[in-house]
Amino acid sequence: MEQRLTKNFKVKDSHRLEVSRAQGGYQSLAKLFQMKPEEVINQVKEAGLRGRGGAGFAAGLKWSFIPKNSGKPVYLTVNADESEPGTFKDRYILELDPHLLIEGIIAACYAIGAHVSYVYIRGEFYFPMQRLQAAIEEAYQAGLLGKNILNSGFDLEVYIHRGAGAYICGEETALLESIEGKRGHPRLKPPYPAIVGLFGCPTIINNVETIASVPYIIQNGVQAYRAVGTQKSPGTKLFCVSGHVVRPGNYERPLGYPLKNLIFEDCGGIRGGKKLKAVIPGGSSTPILDANDVETVLLDYESMEAHGSMLGSGGVIVLDDTTNMVDALGNLARFYAHESCGQCSPCREGTGWAAKILDRMLSGEGRPKDLELLRSIADNMAGKTICVLADSLSMPIWSYMKKFRGEFEAYANPNH
Amino acid sequence: MFEFTSENLAEFQKILQRYSIKRAALLPALWLVQKQTGFISREAMLYVAGLLDVAPAKVYEVVTFYTMFHQKPVGEYHIQVCRTLSCQLLGSPSITEHLKKRLGIGLGEITTDGRFSLVEVECLGSCGTGPMFQVNDEYHENLTIEKVDKILEELK
Predict the structure, then answer these.
(1) Phi and psi for A374 in degrees, rounded to 5?
(2) pLDDT (average), residues A24-35
(3) Which residue of chain B is at minimal alpha-carbon distance from A166?
(4) pTM (predicted TM-score)
(5) Which residue of A has its CA nearest to B65?
(6) In chain A, what residues touch B127 (CB-CB under 8 Å)?
């Protein structure tokens, strides 16, 4: 299959402008500037590009929500806060092909009429941030950023904004708060950021991978983009495989690709001759799949939903048959308890209590009523808060307890 | 008393140009403080509040919200071991235990010579190359006990 996002990853010095250009980098700009902004939005809409950060919302449709002639500046903020456990793809785009991202930023900003873009990078990604900063400087020097890009009359400034350690800042409105110099507290919606976003102005927030997918669409058109993937989930996506596989790593595959092939062919199967027990398919918040599901599920939004889970961010965590599922859920509960911003009581209290109960069960002091209690906590968090962080723990609690009930019952009745 | 060095003050002035409101320069300004002194003291918070015309409490609430901002000094080499699921599956707890033993400190502590501090942190986005830790700004991936020993030797 033709690689679109990762084609330069193995090219020596792929992060440098001259190498990027030798590989065809920035060629889409000539086509871009011949199109009207609405045409760019329509092309991305027709290509069917869906947001790669986790939610899968149609990117072109999102762009079309920017009000015309609001009289206010428009912003593009790129979400490089990559922090959903199991996800490590945007980091490699930043490190190995930062110019692909910049090319996509130019196209997206041109389409929505933005002249300033902020790339929000999680604070821990120091090396990827340096790579992107160097690439931005190269692009300015080559006239690819700044005033009158390639004599198109289009101006664009791109800045990096460094986060400082907070998972919640990957939530798009928390990210905006963080750029504005505040705690990462998600905002109530509506109004959506496309209407009232950064500094109160219309703003689009897109994931790194989403933006990096745009140049191919501009350069090669809708049909070429849709040549792989499925009708409702066209194109390719990066899948990050971690956990108990022989060859973990990033794999660019067409949407609709069988999860089984990814794990057993591409990643060489389960390490140490063990058996597959379960897979978290789209980052830590997505409902878990068991070995039976893996036989039939495809890596696209619809098939995942039909199997009771979600494609999410593409962070595939593979668990072998030695994995203790109560321990795995306890680990994630501690994660969400640590990362809850504390704004909404159901999440602040619920994630903490879930973590405490699971820790107690793991220490051998489980009680028969713990399972009911965990379920009640999950039920009382989901859908009752400003953002979906609480749901991100509720979904694992429900699905792990349903699929691996026996293990949880054993810990809830340690003396039986 | 805290104030920026003239070099950092110039950098701060440059950062201000990127934003249409002053307060947006808060996180970058705090990064500059931490670069200058290794942590963010109460005095530094007051200073930054003055530079940005915001209430000191607004600066304090930001410093305490983000885990990478330190309110007291950390070791010369600040080791952050990822403890989230993918790394745990591949043995991060044994890496942490080994570090505690080798350094003779617990989580959140600093060696008496001030050289090393150790903490566990949540997912660092390095799940395919776990177990891993971060020493200051640098990632060390695919760790084994032998590799950890080698890294510690090199830092000594």
Answers:
(1) -60, -45
(2) 98
(3) B66
(4) 0.97
(5) A183
(6) 85-88, 240, 242-243, 248, 315, 317
